[in-house]
Amino acid sequence: MPEEGVAAIPHSEILTYDEIKRLTGIFASLGITKVKLTGGEPLVRKGIPELIAMLKSIPDIEQVTLTTNGTLLKEHMPALADAGLDAVNISIDALDERLYEQITRRNGLRAALGGLAAALSCPQLKVKVNCVPLAGVNDREWVPLAGIARDKEADVRFIEMMPIGLGRKHAGRTQEEILEALRKAYGEEKTVQGYHGNGPGVYVRFEGFKGRIGFISALSHKFCGGCNRVRLTSAGYLKPCLQYAGGMDVKALLRGQVPDSVLREQVRRAVYGKPAGHSFDSPVTDGMEEMEMSRIGG
């Protein structure tokens, strides 16, 4: 997040819950069956449990999940569970309080860990912890963060820094660098076969661990050929690929009172126009996304 914060968007400019539900029904009719609510921080928007229940009621929607920084999760967890939330990803980049505050600009580690405990208390909920390794910043945190998967029924995932928005100013760490550190602490890993999430993450397990260790390495292990994600911003812009600015303003269509048949065809075209792959290693900048990740959706 920018140090100076982000510009507020008038509430009238973001999608209503009814608009999100209508769009999700159209997505489902085209074969999109899993929805993740993310941000920014989704729990700052009033009525998120109600939105989850609305989305869960749509035929063919198989799963609704949430990505959060966890600081508000403890108070919301009962209502989220009652609404039918299937899984939660909690972003925790350090277990050292001072370093966590340095990275997030808030003294929120205890609240985030309280949110993690609340999520783990719901046996029906799949729980993951997300960490973005930052070179020279949280290198010493990988081993203790991975220890969460040793002690608790949660997966810990290391997500490679992507050069989008402020991400361009930070160097990340590779999957191999992280694995080398974890092997020194926990021994040799075993690869976990098959799919264990909704995306292109790969997982390993260390002996004695209750959970798994995952890696999402979009740069060093390019997985564009298997990418199954599209993003819908809170302001109603459909993005087929993170890197490129291209997409479609579905809010304009919604509020232009077009019929579902027209919406469905426009969404289908946008998704089928998804680029074959990113080109973060290219010096070309024309057509690249300039928005911060907090405005796109993590």
What is the number of helical segments per DSSP (H or I, 4+ residues)?
Answer: 10
* Main sheet: strands, sense, barrel: 8 strands, mixed
Number of strands: 11
Side-by-side strand order of the widest sheet: 1-2-3-4-5-8-7-6
Poorly predicted regions: none
Structure characterization notes:
By secondary structure, this protein is α/β, with parallel strands linked by helices. The protein has a domain at 1-32 and 230-271 and 289-298. The protein has helices spanning 17-29, 48-56, 73-83, 97-104, 109-120, 142-151, 175-186, 250-255, 260-272, 293-296; strands at residues 34-37, 63-68, 87-91, 126-131, 155-159, 189-192, 202-206, 213-216, 231-232, 237-239, 248-249. Strands 1-2-3-4-5-8-7-6 form an eight-stranded mixed β-sheet. Strands 9-10-11 form a three-stranded antiparallel β-sheet. It starts with 16 loop residues before the first helix and ends with a helix. The model has no long low-confidence stretch (mean pLDDT 88).
Offer a few descriptive terms.
298 residues; alpha/beta; 3-stranded antiparallel beta sheet; 15% strand; globular; metal ion binding; cyclic pyranopterin monophosphate synthase activity
Question: What layout of secondary structure does this protein have?
Answer:
Elements: H1 17-29, E1 34-37, H2 48-56, E2 63-68, H3 73-83, E3 87-91, H4 97-104, H5 109-120, E4 126-131, H6 142-151, E5 155-159, H7 175-186, E6 189-192, E7 202-206, E8 213-216, E9 231-232, E10 237-239, E11 248-249, H8 250-255, H9 260-272, H10 293-296
Parallel strand pairs: 1-2, 2-3, 3-4, 4-5, 5-8
Antiparallel strand pairs: 6-7, 7-8, 9-10, 10-11
Helix pairs in contact: 1-9, 2-3, 3-5
